[in-house]
Structures are given as C-alpha cells and as structure tokens.
Amino acid sequence: MEHKPVLLTEVSNYLRPEPNHFFIDGTVGLGGHAATLLSQVLPGGRLLGIDRDAANLERAKKHLSEFEDAVVLVCDSYANIRVHAQAYGFNQVHGILLDLGFSSVHVDDPERGFSFKSDGPLDMRYDRTQSLTAEEIINSWSEDDLARIFRQYGEERQARLVAQAIIKTRAQTPFRRTHELAELVAHTVHQHGKIHPATQVFQALRIAVNDELGELQRTLPECVNLLASGGRLAIISFHSLEDRMIKQFFKTCSDLKVLTKRPVVPTRQEQLENSRSRSAKLRVAEKI
C-alpha cells in the first residue's frame, strides 16, 4: 500500500512554513510531511529529519533528494532531538512535528512483526539494532509485568487472564510468531466485533518494545526548549494514551499557548481515502 502522510494539509496550515524557516520532523518516516514543509521553506530554510528506522530513513533520503543540503537526516530516536538539533544548527526553530503513528511499511512487512494480519516473527522494533523484542517480552517477562503492560498500554480489560494464558502456554512451547500469539489471545478473551481481540495486546507490546510513552514524555519539554518565540509544536497521535499525555502537557506547560482546543481529526474524505488515518488526532501549541 502506498504511504500517505496523515493530516498533511492541516499540519502545513498550522506550522505555517515560509522561506528561511527552520523545522524539525522528529518522526520523518518516508518523508511525506517533510517534503511539503521543505517545498515551502526554500530558499534559505532547512529541515532536520529524525527516524529510528534505518530502512525508512533510506527511503526518505531518496524521496527528499531534490532538496539537497536543505535537509539533514539522522537515524536515531526523537528522544535525542536536542543533541541533533544543536549539532546541526537547529536551535530556536519555527516548528517541530511529531507523527506518532507507525508507518504503512511497518504494517505491511510481515517480517517486522507489527501486525497479525500476516504471520511473522514477534519483533516490533522500530530500531532493529536494539536487543529487546516482543518475543523476549512474551517469553521472559513475569505474569505481573505482562498483565501490567496489557492493562496500561493496551487498555485490555482481561489483561490478567491473557498474561496467565501466555505463561501457561510458553512453559510448553515458547512463542515465536505473531499468529501464535494472536490465536492464543483470541481464544482467551472470546471477544467479538470489528476489532480483532488481539489488537490491544499487540498495541501494548509495540509500546513496551519501543518505550513509546516514555520517549514522548521525555521529549515534550525538549521540543518546547528548541522552539523560538512564536514557534509551533504539532503532534499527531493515534491512541488515547498518547493523546491524553499531549493534552495534559500542553495544558500545564506555561510556555505554551494551545491552538487546538479540541484535536483536529481527518476529514471524511481523507478517512475514506486512507483508512489508517481514522484514529489520528492532531494537537498544536505555540511557544509564547
């Protein structure tokens, strides 16, 4: 499936790119948002793009090659945004974007293990050089820790029951594949409806493997410090845990003025054209 950047028009309208502006895209992915911003900051502007996934970054490099020296790409977590901003001269920038969704590339490649739609290894790492995988969590973490992440990160009501079933099953045969885990969860929770019963467990594992909430919490203050007065921070989230954290931070940070009283969501047309945009929520704040 072709990758389509979510809320592209809305992001551009809120960040207001102009010539000579400097931007940071902390989750550059395949470069969809970055290309639109770069096309409007020239001449004189620059963009720093950061992504944990080396394969995504290579594709972004090709996508953004026409912008030459105006774009700097770095393979790392956005949690280290300050280090790279200072290294490449992106202090006091006009705007920062974080798109917290995982890309269609991750979903569509069974070998990455993010989805149970196709069978693959229990991996789920954005950065494939890190050691912790979903397989390690499922096969080595305690019942209490498994139940905790399923409940906290996946908001799974039957978290304890799922954790107990995993412990019992892995004692005989360790989990290796996404389908094995998805089938066990489905048989355990007996949930019916449009959403597959393993969805929340897989979300929880992805968040735990990549420390997504921890990295976001650490990064938000860094973003504010990097913004110039009048600079804007735009964040796209895809589940309630992230959205609540962003909303609370924007509300309590004295250096920010909230520009989106309610989160901006995709138009009906965008949702029809890109089903993965349906849960997206954009919140934007301006540095005072």
Characterise this structure:
By secondary structure, the chain is of the alpha/beta class. It folds into two domains: 8-105 and 212-287, Rossmann fold (3-Layer(aba) Sandwich); 111-209, Putative methyltransferase TM0872, insert domain (DNA polymerase, domain 1, Orthogonal Bundle). It is built from 13 helices and seven strands. The protein has helices at residues 8-15, 32-41, 54-63, 81-87, 104-108, 134-140, 143-152, 159-170, 178-189, 199-210, 212-226, 240-252, 268-273; strands spanning 22-25, 46-51, 71-75, 93-99, 227-237, 256-258, 281-287. It has a seven-stranded mixed β-sheet, with helices on both faces. Strand 1, helix 2 (32-41) and strand 2 form a beta-alpha-beta unit. Helix 7 packs antiparallel against helix 8. The radius of gyration is 20 Å and the shape is elongated. The mean pLDDT is 95.
CATH fold annotation of the largest domain? Rossmann fold
Low-confidence stretches: none
Give the C-level CATH assignment of the largest domain. Alpha Beta
Coarse shape: elongated
Beta strand % = 5-15%
CA-atom Rg in angstroms = 20 Å
How far apart, in Å, are the first and last alpha carbons?
40 Å
Sheet of most strands: 7 strands, mixed
Quickly give the structural class.
alpha/beta
